[in-house]
Design goal:
With 208 residues, the protein is α+β, with helices and mostly antiparallel strands. The chain has four helices and ten strands, in the order αββββββββββααα. The longest helix is centred in the first third of the chain and has 17 residues. Keywords: Apoplast, Disulfide bond, Glycoprotein, Manganese, Metal-binding, Secreted, Signal.
Length: 208
């Protein structure tokens, strides 16, 4: 009777001993699929667990009139390996974050100023969207196309949390028109005409 209990107790102790409290990312080392390697504990300081960059508005003087200020593992090494991160989203009047995906994590958006029309498209092509007011929260499941745009006449602010320290980002418009994919291939895969594709490539920095 006592032997099985002793074995279970030993397993609990050994598994607890193997668990690390944290793995602060060593940003000087290469990042791998599992994240950054860990800093030596002797080199870890409290500043690795504090990020002060979300109190300042991002620069929205750009094509989409939007700015995302990330606090991901590459900016906030204390997040490394913890399975979460956060960012600030600023949308000027008329600002938009075009259709995009985060292949590495799901997203929770909290509006803190103004209003934001936000939505996502399921893999069955069902659309879920709503205009969010201050204090509203919306979720965007991992990997699904989604968008946010300013829903009113004042600048909007939101804070976005992710279920990954490096959620990744792919913006559909730039994926199609912001690279050197030949125009003929874009035409063939989007049903747009050649003139439209060339115009969008010119706007978004694509070639060919």
């Amino acid at each position: 009777m006592f032997l099985p209990i002793l074995c279970v107790f030993s397993l609990i102790l050994s598994s607890h001993a193997a668990v690390q409290d944290f793995c602060v990312g060593d940003l000087a080392a290469p990042e791998g699929p599992a994240g950054y390697s860990c800093k030596k504990p002797a080199n870890v300081t409290v500043d690795d667990f504090v990020f002060s960059g979300l109190g300042t508005a991002g620069n929205t003087s750009n094509l989409i009139k939007a700015a995302v200020t990330p606090a991901f593992a590459s900016q906030f090494p204390g997040l490394n390996g913890l399975g979460l991160s956060i960012a600030r989203l600023d949308l000027a009047v008329g600002g938009v974050v075009p259709m995009h995906t985060h292949p590495g994590g799901s997203e929770v958006l909290l509006v803190t100023q103004g209003s934001i029309c936000a939505g996502f498209i399921s893999s069955a092509n069902t659309v879920y969207y709503k205009t969010l007011k201050k204090g509203d929260i919306m979720i965007f499941p991992q990997g699904l196309l989604h968008f946010q745009l300013n829903g009113g006449g004042i600048p909007s602010i939101a804070f976005v949390s992710f279920s990954s320290p490096q959620p990744g980002l792919q913006i559909l418009d730039y994926a199609l028109f912001g690279n050197d994919l030949p125009t003929e291939l874009v035409v063939g895969t989007t049903f747009l005409d050649k003139a439209q594709v060339k115009k969008l490539k010119a706007v978004l920095g694509g070639t060919n």
